[in-house]
Amino acid sequence: MSNIIDQSELLLPKILAVLGLIVMLVGSSSIGASIIGVVLYLVGMYMIADKLNNRDVFRFALLSSIALAVGLIIAAIVMGAGALLGFLTLQPGVALGTMIVALIIVYIAILATGWFKKRLMEQIEPHTETTVAAWAGRLYWWGAILTIVIIGLLLVFIAMILEIIAIALLK
User: Fold this and answer.
1) Where do the domains of the chain lie?
2) Is the full-model pTM beyond 0.85?
């Protein structure tokens, strides 16, 4: 079987994945928009993985999405439980302690997401004929690490834009 893929076969998957990323970027403050964006992105990445005959593409896309979602959900539960416990015991230190624990959980989730995104970009890069995907992967990883000092969020934003370009350049 040839490694050359008819570009028309990749058109719909690329559109779905890129549209999903754009919806996630633009609608990041809305949970509903974020969910729609993730679903579009994952459907597109599943189809891309199928066309490239590389299941790791979808696996790393899915794992990165799950890592962030699970981390945010667990952090929200910890913060809610801490706030309730602090209110019931009338000790504000409890709420502060659980907030710190929740932030640590979110940071670990961001690190896991960055690692999986880096691995995803390593899978995509050979199919783009450019180094855009490799740069996106590096920026996702370093952005995740540097999120603790806020500048990492800018790197992750740039990585998302580079991922959009990398997906659009898939061949």
Assistant:
1) 9-168
2) yes
